[in-house]
Automatic annotation (TrEMBL):
It holds the Pfam family Rhodanese. This is Rhodanese-related sulfurtransferase. It comes from the Bacteria. Keywords: Transferase. GO terms for molecular function: thiosulfate-cyanide sulfurtransferase activity. Gene3D superfamilies: Rhodanese-like domain (3.40.250.10). Coiled coil: none annotated. The lineage of its organism: Bacteria, Pseudomonadati, Pseudomonadota, Alphaproteobacteria, Rhodobacterales. Residues 29-126 form the Rhodanese domain. The keyword Transferase applies. It comes from Puniceibacterium sediminis. The keyword Phosphoprotein does not apply.
Length: 130
């Protein structure tokens, strides 16, 4: 193997903006900022989410961003700052890099992910199972 996940994350983080939990918290709820939760549904139901975050399963990100895709979601055409997060910041680092490569201009990710947010004692909302 010539490339591993650790290397991929480091390469992504060299090209994207990483926000720590306190800075992300300052931006949370601001006009023109959208938090994107990349975790799977089981993680949301088990742990909750950052209030108001939009859920985008990591496996659908590219399809939801691409306006030519039949799965495109209008949220990704908005002129807003996207703050991606996952559980620990690995998936969100790769996702922020992918989103940036796909043309989204204002992209960042939450370093340390939802765990960092939770450990900082920041607000969490429950997500009921459907």
């Amino acid at each position: 193997m010539t490339l591993n996940v650790k290397d991929m994350i480091a390469a992504a983080e060299a090209e994207i903006v990483t926000l720590d939990a306190s800075i992300a918290s300052d931006r949370h709820g601001a006009k023109g900022v959208r938090f994107i939760d990349l975790r799977d549904r089981r993680e949301l139901e088990r742990e909750g989410r950052i209030p108001g975050a939009f859920h985008c399963p990591r496996g659908m990100l590219e399809f939801w961003i691409d306006p030519a895709s039949p799965y495109h979601k209008p949220i990704f055409a908005e002129d807003v700052q996207f703050v991606f997060y996952c559980a620990s910041g690995w998936r969100s680092a790769l996702s922020a890099k992918t989103a940036q490569d796909m043309g989204l201009k204002k992209v960042s990710h939450l370093g340390g992910g939802f765990s960092a947010w939770r450990d900082a004692g920041l607000p969490i909302e429950d997500v009921a199972a459907k």
